[in-house]
Amino acid sequence: MSDCLFCSIAKGDIPADIVMETPDAVAFRDIAPEAPTHILVIPREHVESVARAGADRNDAMLGSLMRAATDLAVQEGIESYRIVTNVGEDAGQSVFHLHLHLLGGRAMSWPPG
Ligand code: 5GP
Ligand code: ZN
User: Fold this and answer.
1) Residue identifier of the C-alpha nearest atom 21 of ligand 1
2) What's the pLDDT tens digit per position in 12-37?
3) Is the CB of 100 under 6 A from ligand 1?
4) 17 vs 39: CA distance, rounded Å
5) Looking at the domain that runs over 5-104, which CATH code has it been given?
């Protein structure tokens, strides 16, 4: 998608602090971190949300993103962390290209707001 921010980051057209690249996924630090570790894991392929990937039965994509996030937690040295993906504006989704938030490095409360 030509006007998608995260497609542009995946292509290298917009700079980001990239921490992992695989043939299918890219991970980079969030520009406005909410925790000492705040990394976004995205598929290279443009998909609007995890709901779309689920509806498409794209188990390989969903699995590879979750695996990348857990590998990144090891890489970051965080043993306690949260993996979040927002679906839709009411849930807080602001960029409509599927991304997992990997958050860690501080204590967190539950439930989220
Ligand atoms: P959402 O609100 O869609 O769940 O998450 C989008 C995330 O993308 C936010 O945490 C926001 O800080 C991050 N973000 C927005 N624009 C940029 C950008 O240009 N670069 C990076 N690295 N992160 C961004
Ligand atoms: Zn995109």
Assistant:
1) 31
2) 999 999 999 999 999 999 999 999 99
3) no
4) 9
5) 3.30.428.10
Q: Which residues in 1-113 belong to E strands, given as ranges?
A: 18-21, 25-29, 37-43, 81-84, 100-104
| 46 classed as catalytic | no
Instruction: For residue 111, count other CB atoms closer than 10 A to its CB.
Output: 4
Strands 37-43 and 81-84: unpaired
Give the H or E element holding residue 111: none
Q: Residue 6 C-alpha to ligand 2 middle, in angstroms?
A: 5
Supply the pTM of this predicted model. Answer: 0.98
Q: Using one digit for the tens of pLDDT, what is the confidence trace for 41-73?
A: 999 999 999 999 999 999 999 999 999 999 999
User: Where along the chain do its domains lie?
Assistant: 5-104
* Rg of the chain in Å (alpha carbons): 13
